[in-house]
Amino acid sequence: MGRYIDDILQPGEKVLYSTNAHWIFHLPGIAAWLVTLVFFILWHNAVGPGLEMMWLVLGAAAALVALFLTIKAWFHRWITETDVTNLRVVHKTGFIRRETFEIGVDKVASVEVNQSIMGRILNYGDVTLETMGDVAKTIEKVTSPLEFRSHITAR
């Protein structure tokens, strides 16, 4: 399966910058794996068959939740594409039900970057594009949002 942007490029259009959702989407899965690890350590050190079974069941349940969250985050990152070409900004998400928006770079009135403290440390943030028609589109948790903004505004 090829990239979405490669399928929709117009003649003479070139991709200037590509990014996707930040790895921070994996944080819930990472936390669930840590909880799983704690449950299995407690299971290993449990005294008595009742406690052993309880920690084992909790550990298995936590492992299933962690696996689900990890796959969900990976899939979200896999199906999300954000590109800047010399003509437009293209954002695509979805696999079976696809959502896209495209804004001509000449129609972008402003680009707003919002980063939390954690976002500044880990280099991610939300980027809001406002068009000349006062339509605003936000792309959440973009990797390197300042670099992304620079590729849109540098003309």
Strands in their spatial order, largest beta sheet: 1-2-3-4
Order of helices and strands: HEHHEEEEHEEH
Task: Supply Rg.
Answer: 21 Å
Structural domain tally: 2
Unreliable segments (pLDDT under 50, ≥5 consecutive)? Answer: none
* Beta-strand proportion: 25-35%
Report the CATH C-level class of the largest domain: Mainly Beta
Distance between the termini: 32 Å
- The SS-based structural class is alpha+beta
Task: From the 3D structure, determine the CATH topology of the largest domain.
Answer: PH-domain like
Kindly describe this structure.
The chain has 155 residues and is α+β, with helices and mostly antiparallel strands. The protein has 2 domains: 14-21 and 81-153, Roll (PH-domain like), CATH 2.30.29; 26-75. The protein has 5 helices and 7 strands; from the N terminus they run αβααββββαββα. It has a 4-stranded antiparallel β-sheet with strand order 1-2-3-4. The protein has a 3-stranded antiparallel β-sheet with strand order 5-6-7. A hairpin with a 5-residue loop joins strand 3 and strand 4.
